[in-house]
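Hey all, sorry for the wall of text incoming. These are the two entities for the joint prediction.
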Amino acid sequence: MDPVCCHLVRGLPAIEEGDDLAAMVRERFPVQDGDVVCIASTVVSKAEGRARELEGYSPSARAEEIAGKLEKDPRFVEAVLEEAAEVLLDDPFLLVATKFGHIGVNAGIDRSNVSQGRILLLPVDPGASAERIRCGLGKECAVIVTDTCGRPFRCGVAGVAIGWAGVAPLRDWRGERDLEGRELEITLEAIADEIAGMANLLMGEGGDGTPAVVLRGLSLPKAGGRLFRPRELDVIRACLSSRDRRH
Amino acid sequence: MDPVCCHLVRGLPAIEEGDDLAAMVRERFPVQDGDVVCIASTVVSKAEGRARELEGYSPSARAEEIAGKLEKDPRFVEAVLEEAAEVLLDDPFLLVATKFGHIGVNAGIDRSNVSQGRILLLPVDPGASAERIRCGLGKECAVIVTDTCGRPFRCGVAGVAIGWAGVAPLRDWRGERDLEGRELEITLEAIADEIAGMANLLMGEGGDGTPAVVLRGLSLPKAGGRLFRPRELDVIRACLSSRDRRH
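and here's what came out:
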């Protein structure tokens, strides 16, 4: 097998609402069938017009209460609550499930790389965003929309996939055998997250970040599986829900 | 920048206790200064003689109790408890903090790729294992020992770093500026996990897995930072500890 190589897509300008990301990537990198094109959610959000003015939010009583606890701008908290389908934690940080199923602090709302007084919401439906970009690329490639998230138990943030198209987010090892011919204990591998993490590492953060990375040489399953753990199968989430709030 | 390329180290035999992994990698791949050599914890454990016979374990009363709840072999539960510094959950699965600080289900003990009736413990000190392998490689390279772990909130397992040498597990973005010149919100990136995830994807699972992957072309910080979140800074862990056990 040839090595798997990860290419930065150089020279993308600052992204504006309405920009055609697929065309902008295509013009700068010769995407081929089989490539995995990873794009940072920040630029997808900007292209989709998901930047908002904090001024535009009128905090609810709940937003004011949480903002008081967290010493945050109530308008920012209101924005998080409006993006949330469920609040998992509201102290000492605001951990929510977004309407599209992703769980992240502050609903993944970004205040970096946008102007003062503005925030950047995650795409409404990152899977649909990935599919649109994939169609625009015009190749039999995969597209993964990445975000950076903190994790329980481990320090630091890491890249994860919040949207995907042309690739299964999970590789199913069921029925595979180990060296001794025994069934594998590991059955589902979150390949989209593993790819997103590597892409995130190469993208970098901040002003000199590169929001698009193309991986070439991977052989991946094309479809199937879900990445966002359903509530009923999430023991940790259940523990948060049953948490002693006085604690 | 040239692309970052990920190379499988082909042709490694089944690893036995006492094998010199560094030499075995060196003989099969020309490791260079600056490379990141990722090695699966399974082969590190085998080389370090961490395979055990289930027969060798005498279950404690607690192991018997947990085994009853989980319908697992009490000897296996005993092995997990002996590797654990703290039990975070014992139902519906056994989530523990290992003595070296990593949090994982069943203390990362593997029953795949070992013979019937045998289990494979994680290395005693994967950081020290990484440092030994790095010294044996004789290059200014980084070494990351990888394992696969489930995660709250997201389906599937992903590769993570449980030991590292010659690289900082976290990249510190503090003081960096975004496109607008504002301080970044994201300050610490778990680069060792992002690399381990990609390596894990390429290694594959099961009988035809390749337990060593070399990444070339990365520019990484050399030292500093910790990857295992300290208990006092882990809100989710605190929630598990304060969990209503009747729930």
